[in-house]
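Task card 7
Instruction: Convert sequence to structure tokens.
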Amino acid sequence: MSLSMYQASIPAFVQMLNNLSAILDKAEAHARNRKIDPEVLLNYRLAPDMLPFVRQIQIASDQAKGAAARLAGVEVPKHDDTEKTFADLKARLAKSVAFVQSFKPSDIDGSEDGKSA
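Output:
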């Protein structure tokens, strides 16, 4: 049995987005326990030339929903990139999970052969 394009993509996107949401929960708890301003943590960079944490989450969300949409041949939904809190980021991830999960295997399978653009 071969692996379908749906099986190779959608479950991985959902898992990644849910994992990021769990990481946000841990980061928020850490900030609260250490009395760190959440804005400081959300704008933190691991290296000077890295984008801030909040932007990294936005990009991961965009990549998952964009890839799923392109595989299905539908328009990529736009997000405004205005998230400033842990709750905002978790809501964005939840929207992205819902969008990615809205596809059925028949929407995606066959895209590896150029079915959709």
